Amino acid sequence: MSDIEAKGSIGIEKSVDGVITIDLFGTKFNFKPDSKVEQPELIIDELNHYVRNAENHIKFTASDRNKLAILLLASMNISNDLREMKLQYARLEEHIMQRMSKLLGKIEKISGDSAI
Predict the structure, then answer these.
(1) Is residue 22 within 8 Å of residue 28, measured between CB atoms?
(2) Residue 27 phi/psi, 5° resolution?
(3) Cα distance between residue 41 and residue 105, in whole Å
(4) Are 20 and 44 in contact (CB under 8 A)?
(5) What percent of the chain has pLDDT over 70?
(6) Is the entire prediction scored with pTM above 0.70?
(7) How do the domains of the chain map onto residue ranges?
């Protein structure tokens, strides 16, 4: 992309050398994603989703103060979603461990019964 492509509140541009330019409220930021990051544009799309959602909750003029409030709200929402996912993962992991323990107990019981 030669020009910054608008994606809602965030514009993005990807150069040939892999540097991504993000235009956020008129300020440009350059990032070179880690080689392990696949499709960084999808991450930017997610960020844009959070920023648009925050913008919808803060209905004022686009002053610098409101831009900061929008970004702060977006980051808090991202942090909250991450925390929720970690809790869900921990609950799933605990559930899997309980099921594995039950299955191992049944296997041991069957193995013990057949040895008699």
Answers:
(1) yes
(2) -105, 130
(3) 47
(4) yes
(5) 85
(6) no
(7) 5-115
